[in-house]
Amino acid sequence: xxxxxxxxxxxxxxxxxxxxxxxxxxxxxxxxxxxxxxxxxxxxxxxxxxxxxxxxxxxxxxxxxxxxxxxxxxxxxxxxxxxxxxxxxxxxxxxxxxxxxxxxxxxxxxxxxxxxxxxxxxxxxxxxxxxxxxxxxxxxxxxxxxxxxxxxxxxxxxxxxxxxxxxxxxxxxxxxxxxxxxxxxxxxxxxxxxxxxxxxxxxxxxxxxxxxxxxxxxxxxxxxxxxxxxxxxxxxxxxxxxxxxxxxxxxxxxxxxxxxxxxxxxxxxxxxxxxxxxxxxxxxxxxxxxxxxxxxxxxxxxxxxxxxxxxxxxxxxxxxxxxxxxxxxxxxxxxxxxxxxxxxxxxxxxxxxxxxxxxxxxxxxxxxxxxxxxxxxxxxxxxxxx
Amino acid sequence: xxxxxxxxxxxxxxxxxxxxxxxxxxxxxxxxxxxxxxxxxxxxxxxxxxxxxxxxxxxxxxxxxxxxxxxxxxxxxxxxxxxxxxxxxxxxxxxxxxxxxxxxxxxxxxxxxxxxxxxxxxxxxxxxxxxxxxxxxxxxxxxxxxxxxxxxxxxxxxxxxxxxxxxxxxxxxxxxxxxxxxxxxxxxxxxxxxxxxxxxxxxxxxxxxxxxxxxxxxxxxxxxxxxxxxxxxxxxxxxxxxxxxxxxxxxxxxxxxxxxxxxxxxxxxxxxxxxxxxxxxxxxxxxxxxxxxxxxxxxxxxxxxxxxxxxxxxxxxxxxxxxxxxxxxxxxxxxxxxxxxxxxxxxxxxxxxxxxxxxxxxxxxxxxxxxxxxxxxxxxxxxxxx
Lengths: 386, 386
Description:
The structure is a homodimer of 386-residue chains. Chain A has 386 residues and is α/β, with parallel strands linked by helices.
């Protein structure tokens, strides 16, 4: 059995950690932000442009790629890395969240979820086992287990039932993953030998349920663990509390991945609570809507105040967009509906997120994370330079 | 009076020429293809991506930029080059063609054209003089005179009247350009000192009208001349005849620009008839529709036959898209509606056009243009490798 997985905590500062995660396609320096490439593409960018931004790892989506172009097609073409021309690590989300948020006429039972494709209405299903198989064919470095995501707000009983089912699915997912990894499942190639599987902790905003979920999931022996079901509408302070509470119980020698979070401040605050990995659509989606993150808070590029503004979006930024273009030009592109507006804004926002993670890592290494955290908050609350 | 304009014919092969055009922002090797950046952006690409494709000159549009963001705004920000972050030569089309094809409720009289903006219905006008002033503010290297473009087909009388008016407008345009260049027009800065102005020959598909248009336009002493009013629906063989007929009468020591043409075969055929400069939306527009030009003819990437095709779009191509991506991946991006499909296809098509122009130039230099021309036709008629 191939295994190139390893995680080393290089150093810590309070609960914040600086680590190094070894995966089949390369090493990820943590804390890490993973740009979201749902359909085997970071929306708005070419793979060349993504590579120039230098993320250690990106994320793709099991649900979307299963629907189109199909995981068997991708496996035939050599797996997701060859298919999209990306050589570094990839994490695939299991599709759980998408089934619960995108698919129509959804039916959940103990077996899994039956649903209609949001593309063509075709009747499909995802189960803990099929999510393992799809991700094996895709050949990501990290496969996520298939979980049930309750809505927010939901009653204790609803969240408890989803958490308990997620635990039962976790056992089936892990067992099936080990069978696939051992080559015991016909017609399911492991496109990336050495693929690892992360478990997902659920339990909503109920500490007691989080505790039971952690205990049950960790007992199954996944390579690492994610915290799911947060940033789904609950207040930020409750999210932070849940992150701190849950992260503290996860194994110290495994990376901790907070799914779907968050704003730049969330990244800083959740690293402070022990998180190592993040993904979020915020930098890419908001870029397409004309919101640019800067070290002094976000700006909305379409506003009239930028019409004749010769400054780059963030004068303190070294990204390709800020090195070349003014707010005035970016505003023009956005209002004209030019696709390059989305590309240039996405380059900037992802650079900002990745650069923030690097700065966090350096601050942890030099033991100055708490002063970094305070300064980041102060700068972020300031108005953009004008 | 600043003047960095010069044109040298390096060598010729039949009517085909290999030349060098010196402009304020740099040198253009001819024959040259100018990617179309209507709204101060090549649609689908960032300026970084355009620069990597290495065109000597790009085109932008007077009509569109006058409407949005406005030429006074661009002048305030230092002119078009600074505004868009592009350092090499730019040619601005005068807006004549766009007024006649895009604007609504158009009224043409001897003064110029009054029309309603296709964006917001605002009542605007363009005249030979205002087109000069707008382009002076934009600060392109080459400004085009404002012409009247008759539809096709049109009667001899209609085309004659438009050609005669274009000649009268040409005189006004040239006189006004010289006044602006001499600094005699208040509030009209020449954002690019050394800007030059090209005249436009009209006359439809009537050789006699073309002859009169050439004589009258050349008499006005523009820095160079363009052939307008072709590739507007007339049969290709008639277009080629008109190009040969008209180009032969234009001054040999000035570059000849064929406006809005054309397919890869058109480029080869019109260079053979004495043309030095081209622009066309075909490579960029068709890229967005999923058509990729290859050395063996165009392919339509959405076709099912490419679903599992691991080959690059054109196995003989060295562009960033072909070096990295398969037809299968490009088809997936196109069908998924990913913006990067447009970017990758545009990169490929523009690379193909620019590379074809380079190959034509080399063939002329080595005296092998006629065999190049034959081989290009033969390869282009072949089916793409599968």
